[in-house]
Prior knowledge:
Layout: E1 4-5, E2 8-9, E3 12-16, H1 23-33, E4 39-42, H2 49-61, E5 69-72, H3 75-81, E6 85-88, H4 95-101, E7 106-111, H5 114-122, E8 127-131, H6 146-155, E9 161-164, H7 172-177, E10 182-185, H8 187-190, H9 195-206
Amino acid sequence: MNVRKGGVAIKELHVISTGQQTRAQFVSIIKDIHPYIDFVHLREPSWTDNEMIEAINLLIEEGVPRNKLVVNTRVNIAHVMKTYGIQLTNESMDVTEVKKFYRHLRVGCSVHSVKEAIDAAGHGADYLIYGHIFETGSKRGIAPRGVKQLEEVTHNTTAPVIAIGGITPENTQLVLQSGASGIAVLSGILLARDPLQAVKRYQECLAGGIK
């Protein structure tokens, strides 16, 4: 997380599957955009374990490095497939247990408050995903947490915080100014008319190129 280049921390771009695409569609897009992203998260609760393994194998066959792959909640698959890591929620396996039995996995935790962030980091989470920051279609009727609460989270934990939820190229710098170590994007890239152009625009924003 946050590799430094020339003394400056590089902000990360995480792409998370939308649950709205077939495995073939998802793999086809990731094949083209993976050179421009840091991590791809497979968050597909409707897929069986075999379907998840099939998708991981297809991604690897298309040249996507294992060290860019993160599996959501299914620790057994992350372990067997030797992916970079596992993303946990408050309903999945405890971070302490994962760190104890699967030491090779980088463990991320999805959090929604300062307390959850402090607890997850205190139990050994390598990074946190916090949100949702802005209004987003996937969270209709739920008030966004906003950049002020994001800033509280980043200032109260030592774990890197990846912001998620309604993040666009235009508001990326605002998120980074609140202390986030990167951003996570779903439909803004994967459902874009041109995912490759979309991911390049996000990268430009992460580098400070678009205000």
